[in-house]
Amino acid sequence: MPVLIKVSQNQIKDAKSFGKFYGHVVSTKTMTYAELCKHMAEHNSVYGEDVCLGVANKLQSCLLEQLLEGKKVQFGDLGTFYLSVKGTGVDNEEDYNIGVCINGLFLRFAPNRQDVNDLSSKTLKKKATLVNVKDLIESKAKKPADGEDQGGSDGGSTTGGGGTTGGGSTTGGNDNQGDGPVNDDAGDGPVNP
Questions:
Q1: pLDDT per position in the chain (193 positions), as tens?
Q2: Domain containing 42 — which CATH number?
Q3: Do the strands 21-27 and 182-183 form a parallel or antiparallel pair, or are they unpaired?
Q4: I want to staple 162 with a disulfide (CB 3.0 to 4.6 A). Which of 3, 63, 75, 132 is the partner?
Q5: Does a structural domain hold residue 22?
Q6: Assigned domain for 193 exists
Q7: Number of domains the chain contains
């Protein structure tokens, strides 16, 4: 399955990029933790789904424990989890009150940018097959229904390619936990135009 890109227009009137079109990643589903563990077990693993789930649960709790102890946690060759804060500033250091000035604590992930699992934007773009959602919908609409005469066969054809408008990357995380189409930026406009 390719990475689906939906092109939409920036509707934020105060933005410099108002009216411009940008591509956004759209997910078809949010894979649950249990589904991921089942998927892991199906990859010719000697461990069953229950063992994979048990290991993943322990990994999750230990990861959180270590983060809350002020450590960064390297996750194999994928990258590193760490915490960051968002807050308001004050004019004098003596006036800084952590309870008042810190507005949020966030879990972040910095992908590995070297070695075999290079997860940099440039490498991911090379590895991914990007398909414009609009092109996918149009190609499915043109397909004849089952049982309709297709007038012979020319060996078949494939649809794909598509394109993206805009591009860029996101910083921070996505709090969207629901099922259904998930937009990487929750539909709030351009992603770093």
A1: 688 888 889 999 999 999 999 888 888 888 887 888 888 888 877 888 888 888 888 989 999 999 999 999 988 878 899 999 999 999 989 999 888 999 999 999 988 777 666 777 788 888 888 888 888 888 888 876 655 544 443 333 333 333 333 333 333 333 333 333 334 433 333 343 3
A2: 4.10.520.10
A3: antiparallel
A4: 132
A5: yes
A6: no
A7: 1
Q: What is the DSSP string of the chain?
A: -PEEEEEEE---TTSTTTT-EEEEEEES----HHHHHHHHHTTT-SS-HHHHHHHHHHHHHHHHHHHHTT--EEETTTEEEEEEEEE---SSGGG--HHHHEEEEEEEEEE--SSTT---HHHHHHH--EEEHHHHHHHHHHSPPTTS---S-SS---------SS-----S------SS-EETTTT-S-S--
Q: Domain range holding 104? A: 3-141+160-183
* 155 belongs to a structural domain: no
- Beta carbons of 113 and 135 less than 8 angstroms apart: no
